[in-house]
Each structure stands twice: as C-alpha cells, then as structure tokens.
Design goal:
By secondary structure, the chain is mainly alpha-helical. It is built from 27 helices and no strands. Among the domains are: about 5-80, no CATH class; about 90-170; about 390-505, no CATH class. The protein has helices at about 5-15, 15-25, 30-40, 50-55, 65-80, 90-105, 110-125, 130-145, 150-190, 195-200, 205-215, 220-235, 240-255, 265-280, 285-290, 295-300, 305-325, 330-345, 355-370, 375-385, 390, 395-410, 415-425, 435-445, 455-470, 475-480, 485-495. It is globular and about 105 Å long.
Amino acid sequence: MRKSQQLHDLIHSMGKNEKRYFKVNNKREGSIYIKLFDQILEQKKYNFEVLRELLVKEHISSSLSRVQHHLYKLILKSLANFHAASHPRYEVMESLKHYIILRDKGLHQQGKSILNNALIKAKANNYYGLVLEISDLMEDWVTEEDSHDEAVKQKKNLFELYRENNSYTKDVVELKKQIFDLRLFFLEHQFGRNNKHRAFLKSFIEKTHFQLNKEHNLLKKRMLLTILIYVYYGLQDFEQLIATEKQRLDLLNQNWAASHISPFLAFAYHRNLLWVLLSNKNYKEHFALVNNMDNMLIFTLLYKSSFYTIKLKIASAVTLLYAEVKQQHYHQAYHQINKLWKMYIDYEKNWDLNLLVQSFILFINTTFCLGKYEESYNWLLFFEKNIPQTYVLPYQNMGKITHLLIHDGLGNHKLIQNKIESTRIRLYRKFAFFEVANTFLKFFKRRVKCKSEEDQLKLLIQYKKQMEKIADKEDQKGFFIMFNFVDWFDSKIQNCSIANLKRLY
C-alpha cells in the first residue's frame, strides 16, 4: 500500500477527540498540515490531484509526497501523546523516556522514583519485555553508587529481577509454542479427523487444566484458556468450548491490560463466541449476546476508535443471518440481506474477507432456497468476480454445481446438459466438496435418460440417499453448513422451493 493511501486510512481511522487533539497541538507546525489534514478527511477516496492543487494554492514548493510523509509522522506523534495516559503500556514507555531525559542530565535521583514506579506498573501488567528494558537502565544505578553496601544491594536486587523475569518469560514462551503448534495443526487439519489427531489434542487437556487451576497470572491464564479453546474446538466439544470461551472473555472485565487483550483480540473473542454458540445451536444465547454487545462497558474503555466496534456489528449481523438460515427461516433471512449489503457499502474496509465470503454464500443460499434464482445467480457472479482467487478456489466445486442448480431452477435444462461434461473436467479433485459435486454431475447425467416422472422420482430418492451418506462424512460436512443439498433433493421430490418444504422432522 502506498504511503499516501496509508495516510488517508490513518486520518479516517481517527476519532473525534483524536482529530481535535491533533489540530490544537499542531498549529505551530504550519497551517498547510492542518489544511492537508482537513482536505484528506473530506475525501472518501484518496485524490492526488486535489491535494497537489492545494500545495500550489498555498505556495508550497515541497513535493506532495514529502509533505504527506511529514504529516503522517505528526499524526502518529499526536496519537501517541493523546493515548499516553490511557493505556498502562503507554504510561510505562513514557516513564522510560522521562527517565532517560533525566539520566542524561545527570539527575539520577529524580529519575529513580520514575523508573521504580514504571517497574511496578510493568510487572503488574506482565510487560516482561519492558521489565527487561527497565532492568537494563537500572544498571546505571550500580555504576553511579558511591557506597559499596548500596551497590551490592542494588546488584542483588537487579539479578533477582533478571532471574524472575527470565523464568516468567520462559513460561510464556512455552505456552506460546503450544498455541502455535495447535494453530498449525488447525491450518492443516481444521479439526481432529481421526484417532491420531484426537489423541494429540487430548494430550493437552489434563496438564493445561492442572496449570490453569493454580494460575493467578492473567496473561498466562489467557494463554492456557486459548490452548483449551483450540483443543475443544478440535474435538468439536462445543459445551466445553463455550464455557472456556466465556472464561477467556471474563478476563476483559478482570483486567484487559494485564491479560494483554488488544482491541483486535476483544473483537476476535466475541466473534468466535458468536459462531461457537451457533455451532452448538444455542440460538437464544446468541441473540442475547448480540443484543447486549452495545451495552458492554469494556468496549467504551478499550476501543479508542470505531473500527473494531463496527467490525463486531458486522460479525453480529452476519451471524444473525447465519442463525436464520440454520433454523431454515429463509424469509426472515432474506430481509437481512439488504441490511448487510448496506453495511458492506458503508464500511467496506472494516470487513474481514472470511466474513465477506460467508456473507455472499449466505446470500446465494437464502435467495436460492426461496426460489429467487435470478437474484441467486447475480450474487454468485458477484462472488466469483469480486472475491480474490485464492479465497474462491476452495469454493470452486461448490460454485460450479451451484451454477447448474440455479439453471435447473430457471428451467434451462438444455444448458445444463451442455455444461455437464465441461463442469466434470473442470472440477478440482484436490479441493474439498469434490464428492458432492461429482454426485450431482452423475445425477444430472442420468436424469436426461429418465423416460417418465416415476423414473425421475426414483432417481431423486436414490441420489438423496447417497447425499445423506455424504453429508455424514467429516471431509464433506463443511459443504452442508452453508448449503444443504439433501434439502434440494427433497424440494424436487415435493415439487416446491426449499423454503416451502414440508419437513417430517
């Protein structure tokens, strides 16, 4: 990303108070920076020409890139000063700067109390990196001390501090290693698919619970809970997973700073819990969490801009749509599509790509199940055109079959027959959902040979049974979360849309 676009994004990420603070404290830097700031703030999309014209109008000889670079640094400096007293980490770092200034002026005694207070705050909030830096600065005290006894005492205290911090850091690094190992496991396998995978995951449970029960340090507690969350997700133990997710979220209220929970992690933890509740079909609890989200005090304390609060509203809206689809409330789901689409138009930069992919699949699913095939086709084309190819690839097989199903709904049966062979050739065997896609191709190929409605009904029942068996396979379940193709066979048997099925369960 170009520096100019970075500047545009930075300015538009600022809150009202941050903008006011910047303007009040940078008047002496020259009005051009304030004018450039205001001009960029008015631009929905970055416009190079308008900004260059501003420099010409103000008789500024420096290049636009140079002025923007300086403005970028001014804004970062302003934001650092603005937040200096609102976050314990900022406070410790400010104290380090103040100590170094006093030390370099020979005012060690003044600086000692500042550094001691910084050490207390750093230890209280588990800033082990800053503790190491503080201990490094404290070496000056031993060098400057005239009294032998005091120097020995300071050396003893200093090496005790080294020992404690090294031991603590070693523990944290070990927990991080376990988290990274589990993360790599999920990137490869998604969850425990066989006995070997499940044995690997279960090996973490007893030891982690033992450590958790005796642990009082909030950072290590959060990491232990994260290990258990990975394990329970891998084992698909949703009851334990929900309980553990709630325990981790409770750390926000205990002390978010000491737990090292950033705004991104706070967003991610809430987003995860929303999805986990749905996976366990806890719809009432999911709706309650969504409704209470805006009233949570932690968000007003932790978030200094609207970026993550908007992301959380997006995640809430997507999961609400997902909940309606999972409960087969397709008409209610349809009314949420326009709301989500407006959120995408208004807050495009706040969307996670994974949530966007899931949203478009839900749009396709909902409109298809309601029999709105033209709309479904338009969403499918938009999905394939606007989502990066690396993200589309795992859904290629689904997309190819969805094209056939939509054309079937539109009555384009000749077009389907023309596409069957080319679709078979283009299926990606190495990606998931190949078995589902191949089963549909066989069905369409055999359907053209049916001589009567009775033959076609028998074929539908036969392939419905095959699809039910496929739906139970672990490596194919992901396909059915977003699109239940067993329902499609039922809709054909009952001669109605999926939304109007008469269900026997």
